[in-house]
């Protein structure tokens, strides 16, 4: 059981694997650097023992009599390091005296040897082959064979010079440079590992968040796929259980309310029959008006619940064709409803539900304003915008934020026969949001009302419409 737990996909395991891989990659890169980094991968100059060797030879030559110094310098030579002593006034000593050197390199050489030599050298000369002093005849090395030699000259108190020549660079980065490189490498790896680790952890969380948003928009959708680390799978499983309970609640509520609305038709029918027996025309007329109003309310409620519980499948259809058909239907009834937009555009959605939405919006415009203009446009991302534009009086600004609330009516004085029960726009909004879109109303500056319906585009035929979070209207 413990072994299974260790192998199970968890957030802690992902983090440990990421850190472990980062450490392994870092170690591998360091090994590659030391193998193929050339001279830069060598130890710094303090760790090579070169400074101690130079200091020893300089102290020895300084203490020896002048006649013995050439032989001692020659004896101190190695395969990679040359020592040479030049008396005062010789060509090489004169060249060293008159040479010009970079102050930064001289200061570095002095600092490296100050603790070992004290005040023995009265002057330092540090240079490379780009310095004219390196061209002085008689230097004890082959220039063509060692083109990258380093030179260190130390003048003794008697004016003579000890010249140390490193035939090749025997050291890597200096200590300060090495620390800067290590800090830069460490910072880079911290950033890289942090990005990889955060991505490994954030990606399943982002997927879970997107699935939860889809669930918030359409509780009837399929449950969240239980993938990712164990902790997130448990969260998804809990949300799926909650979603199942909400779906059952919605189903029970819809069924109950639809049954109540349906059952109310029977007593209404009996009331109408009994009203036929009333002899007073005024009371009979008033009773029939109330019965008709209740009938309209019941029919509207039944239509709303029917839309809420509808299981219509999505299909691909021609959206401009649907809008054109709605336009022609109202033209046949004598209303000047026009369509402007593309001739053909494929869309995947619930055809009959969307037809009820656009028909309801056009009918509202005809009933309360003027026959509208229907426009359709598509942006660069493939999303659709359907606008229903009329030239009527518009809607009070205070009412725009409430028009989609159930049973809300802008004009409270309208009777039910002419104004409905206030569920048409609520139902339309629910249908549009189930397609992942949004709907809004706004008064036009030049007068009239514009209803804007946003529908997200589809990527290919045969796909179900997106059930994600509704995106804001542009």
Strand and helix map with partners:
Blueprint: H1 2-7, H2 11-36, H3 50-63, H4 69-75, E1 81-86, H5 91-98, H6 103-117, E2 123-128, E3 150-155, E4 161-166, H7 175-217, H8 230-263, H9 265-275, H10 281-308, E5 315-318, H11 319-332, E6 338-340, E7 346-349, H12 351-368, E8 373-378, E9 384-389, H13 397-400, H14 416-419, H15 424-434, E10 438-443, E11 449-455
Structure notes:
- It is a single chain.
- The chain is of the alpha+beta class and 474 residues long.
- Among the domains are: 45-166, no CATH class; 312-474, Heat Shock Protein 90.
- It is 51% helix and 13% strand.
- The chain has 15 helices and 11 strands.
- The protein has helices spanning 2-7, 11-36, 50-63, 69-75, 91-98, 103-117, 175-217, 230-263, 265-275, 281-308, 319-332, 351-368, 397-400, 416-419, 424-434, and strands spanning 81-86, 123-128, 150-155, 161-166, 315-318, 338-340, 346-349, 373-378, 384-389, 438-443, 449-455.
- It has a 5-stranded mixed sheet, with helices on one face.
- The model is unreliable at 413-418 and 459-474 (pLDDT under 50).
């Amino acid at each position: 059981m413990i072994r299974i737990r260790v192998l199970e996909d968890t957030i802690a395991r992902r983090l440990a694997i990421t850190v472990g891989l980062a450490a392994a990659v870092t170690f591998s890169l360091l090994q590659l650097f030391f193998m193929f980094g050339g001279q830069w991968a060598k130890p710094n100059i303090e760790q090579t023992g070169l400074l101690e060797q130079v200091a020893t030879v300089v102290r020895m030559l300084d203490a020896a009599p002048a006649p013995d110094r050439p032989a001692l310098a020659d004896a101190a030579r190695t395969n990679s390091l040359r020592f040479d002593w030049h008396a005062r006034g010789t060509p090489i000593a004169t060249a060293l005296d008159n040479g010009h050197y970079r102050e930064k390199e001289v200061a570095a050489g002095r600092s490296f040897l100050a603790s070992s030599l004290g005040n023995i050298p009265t002057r330092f000369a540090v240079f490379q082959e780009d310095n004219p002093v390196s061209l002085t005849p008689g230097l004890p090395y082959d220039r063509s064979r060692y083109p990258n030699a380093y030179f260190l000259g130390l003048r003794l108190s008697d004016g003579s010079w000890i010249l140390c020549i490193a035939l090749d660079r025997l050291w890597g980065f200096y200590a300060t440079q090495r620390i800067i490189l290590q800090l830069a490498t460490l910072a880079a790896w911290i950033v890289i590992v942090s990005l990889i680790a955060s991505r490994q952890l954030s990606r399943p969380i982002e997927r879970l968040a997107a699935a939860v948003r889809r669930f918030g928009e359409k509780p009837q959708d399929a449950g969240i796929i239980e993938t990712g680390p164990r902790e997130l799978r448990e969260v998804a499983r809990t949300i799926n259980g909650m979603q199942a309970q909400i779906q059952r609640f919605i189903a029970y509520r819809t069924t109950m309310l639809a049954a109540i609305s349906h059952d109310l038709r029977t007593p209404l029918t009996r009331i109408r029959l009994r009203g036929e027996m009333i002899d007073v025309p005024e009371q009979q007329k008033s009773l029939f008006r109330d019965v008709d109003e209740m009938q309209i309310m019941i029919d509207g409620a039944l239509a709303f619940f029917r839309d809420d519980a509808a299981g219509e499948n999505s299909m691909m259809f021609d959206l401009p064709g649907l809008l054109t058909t709605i336009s022609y239907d109202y033209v046949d009834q004598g209303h000047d409803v026009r369509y402007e937009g593309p001739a053909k555009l494929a869309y995947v959605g619930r055809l009959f539900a969307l037809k009820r939405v656009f028909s309801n919006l056009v009918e509202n415009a005809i009933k309360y304003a003027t026959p509208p203009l229907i426009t359709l446009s598509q942006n660069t991302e493939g999303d659709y915008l359907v606008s229903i534009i009329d030239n009527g009086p518009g809607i009070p600004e205070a009412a725009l934020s409430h028009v989609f609330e159930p049973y809300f009516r802008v004009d409270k004085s309208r009777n039910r026969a002419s104004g409905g029960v206030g569920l048409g726009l609520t139902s339309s909004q629910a249908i549009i949001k189930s397609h992942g879109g949004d709907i809004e109303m706004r008064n036009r500056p030049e007068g009239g009302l514009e209803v804007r319906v946003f529908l997200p585009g589809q990527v290919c035929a045969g796909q179900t419409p997106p059930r994600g979070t509704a995106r804001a209207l542009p």
